[in-house]
Amino acid sequence: MENLNPHVVFLPFPAQGHVKPLLKLAELLSHAGFQVTFINTQYIHRRLLLSIDVDAFQRRFPNFHFLSIPDGLPPHHPRSLEYLLPSIGSATLAALRRLLVSDLLNRTATCIIADGIMPSSAVTAGEEFRIPVLAFRTFSACCTWTNFHLSKLIEEGEVPVQDKDMDKLVTCIPGLENVLRRRDLPSICRVQKAGDPILEFFIKEAKAMLGASALILNTFDELEAPMVSKLTSFFSKIYTIGPLHAISNVRINDDRSHLASTTGILWREDRDCITWLDSQPLESVVFVSFGSIVSFAHDQMLEFCHGLVNSGNPFLWVIRPDSIIVEDGDSGQLLMDLQERTKGKGLIVSWAPQEQVLAHRAVGGFLTHGGWNSIMESTHAGVPMICCPVISDQQVNSRFVSEVWRVGLDMKDRYERSVVEQMVRDLMEAKRDEIMTMMDGVAEQARESVKQGGSSYRNLQILIQDIKSMTT
Ligand code: UDP
């Protein structure tokens, strides 16, 4: 007989852009009646407690449990990727094994939904304990497909990317022959030598992902069908359930009245910026946010600052406390300098309620680093983008935004003030009509996909059914 209460264990990578979408999916499954165990690293768990009232959360999701595990680094150590990647895999595997034999999980898990950036620990534990693993890759389908070709890119001599070859087209990724130049490959391809440890990490984890029984993507079919179709050569089951932040507000179970989600945000939001936006003219404001990880030197920040001010558009600019790279000096002083220079022209905040900002009537454009959550959120809100990619998948995403979907511009590798100014003017005036025609169409598809009967909505229902059937 079917056990109606499956138990899903979530294992996100410890970063904002990963915890947020996995937490959204976990809430949706909890609403569907599943038992959920959400495993964060201790460091992330402490930060999440700043935005979640755990008691209220527990009342709303009585079958939802948070657990926390070590990430392998001492408590006060910096947690950038270079430090985290060497330690996290083995620390996670050891912790998972302990949990799976303890009373906390005690072999009750129906399946593990593991972050696709680092699935190897879950795949190994899943094999040992005979628990199916589903990989949730929080990247776009186009970057996920690209990442599966890292070894081939090295074999063909296209990676490591040399400065002189940046504009050559990449030839060895099927389906992308006329799309990607070498400068559009993920930033890990810009290394000195093929054996680079971070590049090796991504190659190893992409291989490990093939041990998952299915792939979950925060994208929608109407946007990425060609790439999703390519990925079916690796996975017999793919669930495209994006834009996930918007699907959270959709009823998914007839016997439940509504869904509302927590944000899964690791910073304190400055909500006063919404009042400031209320006072700005329709579609006049450029929202500037580079996500949760990317940071810039002060000189680079000055280029953005001059470019934005010179464009003449009002702007709302997120500068996190750790956004400015400081060698020797005081980031507070540098921030004050930027605030002084932008006084009366724009507003600087340390963290914004981004989904709400993008949905605001005053926002007409988004200067973004091109993180995948940001692109999904902007697409759903119908806000055209200027992408200035820095790391990871952002190079691939920005190429697709400008050349494939044509819903924005790509500022890749050209961050001088004159380029910033010109691109903002193009987005807000000269090229606006042409870009908005494309964006309106894509936004409509995004909104339809998460409505009842839409593609992502249906795929979420299928995912729920498939997990239920694992308990029979
Ligand atoms: N975000 C936010 N407020 C901010 C900046 C970012 O809420 O001021 C959220 C944003 O909505 C997105 C996430 O942080 O969901 C960033 O994820 P993304 O994949 O865009 O970039 P990453 O941080 O992983 O580089």
TrEMBL record:
<dbReference type="GO" id="GO:0102970">
    <property type="term" value="F:7-deoxyloganetic acid glucosyltransferase activity"/>
</dbReference>
<dbReference type="InterPro" id="IPR002213">
    <property type="entry name" value="UDP_glucos_trans"/>
</dbReference>
<dbReference type="GO" id="GO:0080044">
    <property type="term" value="F:quercetin 7-O-glucosyltransferase activity"/>
</dbReference>
<dbReference type="GO" id="GO:0080043">
    <property type="term" value="F:quercetin 3-O-glucosyltransferase activity"/>
</dbReference>
<keyword id="KW-0328">Glycosyltransferase</keyword>
<comment type="similarity">
    <text>Belongs to the UDP-glycosyltransferase family.</text>
</comment>
<dbReference type="Pfam" id="PF00201">
    <property type="entry name" value="UDPGT"/>
</dbReference>
<keyword id="KW-0808">Transferase</keyword>
<protein>
    <recommendedName>
        <fullName>7-deoxyloganetic acid glucosyltransferase</fullName>
        <ecNumber>2.4.1.323</ecNumber>
    </recommendedName>
</protein>
